[in-house]
C-alpha cells in the first residue's frame, strides 16, 4: 500500500466521505444573492469548444443542465420558459410559417414550436453541438422536436448566421444564455438591427431578457435599443423557480402585431395544447407588469 493510499484509508471516514458530497450549486448576482441548490451528484461535466457543460442531479429539481455556470433547464420545473418563449409569438403572428431559433441548444423551444401545425419550417442555429448532444442524452423529452421533419438544426454562430442570411422569417426567437461568453454579442443593438432585417414585413422577434430584478442595467439598455428598432416592444414575464429571483422576462418585438390585440383565441382553442404552464389567460396576464418593471423599461 502506498503512502497516499494509507493516508486516505486512515483519515477519510465514512462520515467524511459523506461530507465530500455536501455539494451545492449557486448562481449568484454579483456574488451576493441568488439561487442555491443542494447537489446529490455530478452526472456529467465536460468542456466543449465554447463552454463548460455540467449535468447535476438534485432532489428538488431532478437533473439540471448548467452552461457557462448558468442554470438552463431542469426536470422538475414547469417548462414555463420554453412554453412562453415559443407560444406567445406563435399565437400572435397570423401565419407563422417560417421560424428561426437562435440558441436553444436544449431544444425545448424547438419542441414547443413543433406543436403548431401552421409552422412549415423551424431552423435552430446553435453554436455548440455539445449542448444538443448532452440535452438529447439527459433531457430527451425536451429534444423530441429535433426529430420533427420540419426542423433543421445547424451549428453556427448565431450572429454570423443572421448577418449572412438572405432568408426572411415570420418569427425569430432568441433563446440565449446569459450575456457572457459566446452569447454576449447577441445582446447588442447591431445584432438586433440585423434580426429586424431578417424578419418579414409583419415579423415578430421574441428574446429572453433576463431578470428585471437582478439584471436591471442589462434590461434597461436592451429595451432602449429594441425600442429604437421596433415599432412595438413589450415586456412579458413568467415564473421560473430555477432562475435567480424567480421572475424572468421576455421582450416581445413586432413590426405590426400587438401581443394582446392580435392573440388568436380561435386558433388557441382549436389546437388544445398540451402544456404545463402556458394558457390563454397566462398569455394575457404575462404582459401585466409590476410597477418597478414598468418604470425600468419606460
Question: What's the quick description here?
Answer:
The protein is 32% helix and 30% strand.
Topology (elements, then pairings):
Blueprint: H1 3-11, H2 14-20, E1 23-29, E2 33-39, E3 41-47, E4 52-58, E5 62-67, E6 70-74, H3 80-92, E7 98-103, H4 108-113, E8 121-126, H5 129-138, E9 151-155, H6 158-164, E10 169-175, H7 189-197, E11 199-208, H8 216-229, E12 232-239, E13 247-254, H9 265-271, H10 280-285, H11 291-297
Parallel strand pairs: 7-8, 7-10, 8-9, 10-11
Antiparallel strand pairs: 1-2, 3-4, 4-5, 5-6, 11-13, 12-13
Describe this structure in words.
A hairpin with a 2-residue loop joins strand 5 (62-67) and strand 6. The protein has 11 helices and 13 strands. Helix 7 packs parallel to helix 8 (216-229). Residues 1-14 have low confidence and may be disordered. With 298 residues, the chain is α/β, with parallel strands linked by helices. The longest helix has 14 residues, at 216-229. It has helices at residues 3-11, 14-20, 80-92, 108-113, 129-138, 158-164, 189-197, 216-229, 265-271, 280-285, 291-297; strands spanning 23-29, 33-39, 41-47, 52-58, 62-67, 70-74, 98-103, 121-126, 151-155, 169-175, 199-208, 232-239, 247-254. The chain has 2 domains: 3-74, Spermidine synthase, tetramerisation domain (Spermidine Synthase, Chain: A, domain 2); 80-297, Vaccinia Virus protein VP39 (Rossmann fold), CATH 3.40.50.150. It has a 7-stranded mixed sheet. The protein has a 4-stranded antiparallel sheet with strand order 3-4-5-6, with helices on one face.
Amino acid at each position: 500500500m502506498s503512502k497516499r493510499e494509507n493516508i486516505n484509508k486512515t483519515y477519510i471516514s465514512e462520515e467524511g466521505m459523506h461530507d465530500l458530497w455536501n455539494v451545492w450549486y449557486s448562481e449568484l448576482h454579483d456574488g451576493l444573492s441568488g439561487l442555491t441548490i443542494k447537489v446529490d451528484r455530478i452526472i456529467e461535466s465536460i468542456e466543449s469548444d465554447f463552454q463548460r457543460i455540467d449535468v447535476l442531479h438534485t432532489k428538488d429539481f431532478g437533473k439540471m443542465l448548467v452552461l457557462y455556470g448558468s442554470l438552463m433547464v431542469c426536470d422538475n420545473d414547469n417548462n414555463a420558459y420554453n412554453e412562453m418563449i415559443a407560444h406567445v409569438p406563435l399565437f400572435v403572428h397570423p401565419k407563422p410559417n417560417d421560424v428561426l431559433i437562435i440558441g436553444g441548444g436544449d431544444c425545448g423551444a424547438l419542441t414547443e414550436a413543433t406543436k403548431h401545425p401552421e409552422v412549415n419550417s423551424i431552423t435552430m442555429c446553435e453554436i455548440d453541438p455539445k449542448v444538443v448532444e448532452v440535452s438529447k442524452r439527459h433531457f430527451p423529452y425536451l429534444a423530441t422536436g429535433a426529430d420533427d421533419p420540419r426542423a433543421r438544426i445547424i451549428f453556427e454562430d448565431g450572429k454570423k448566421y443572421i448577418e449572412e442570411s438572405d432568408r426572411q422569417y415570420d418569427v425569430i426567437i432568441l433563446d440565449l444564455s446569459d450575456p457572457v461568453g459566446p452569447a454576449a454579442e447577441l445582446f447588442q443593438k447591431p445584432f438586433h438591427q440585423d434580426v429586424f432585417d431578417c424578419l418579414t414585413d409583419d415579423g415578430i422577434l421574441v428574446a429572453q431578457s433576463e431578470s428585471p430584478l437582478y439584471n436591471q442595467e442589462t434590461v434597461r439598455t436592451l429595451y432602449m435599443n429594441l425600442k429604437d428598432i421596433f415599432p412595438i416592444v413589450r415586456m412579458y414575464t413568467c415564473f421560473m423557480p430555477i432562475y435567480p429571483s424567480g421572475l424572468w422576462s421576455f421582450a416581445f418585438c413586432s413590426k405590426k402585431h400587438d401581443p394582446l390585440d392580435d392573440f388568436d383565441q380561435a386558433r388557441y382553442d382549436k389546437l388544445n395544447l398540451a402544456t404545463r404552464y402556458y394558457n390563454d389567460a397566462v398569455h394575457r396576464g404575462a404582459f401585466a407588469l409590476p410597477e418597478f418593471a414598468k418604470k425600468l423599461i419606460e
